[in-house]
Design a protein that fits this description.
2 strands, about 60 residues, 1 helix, alpha+beta
Length: about 60
Amino acid sequence: MGLTANTSMVEIKIDKVFISLSMNSHTEDLRSTAKSVLAARPDAGVVAIIVPGPGLIK
């Protein structure tokens, strides 16, 4: 990622976000997470991936 010590969080450009819910979470948790991501209106260059559990990612 090319991070260096003492870099401020606001200086780090985020281009990908991966959110995985645990096996014990409920469908409503997934829906709530998706709504939050959509409401946050990420920048056009940000890719958000939300998966429902610890299954294989393709």
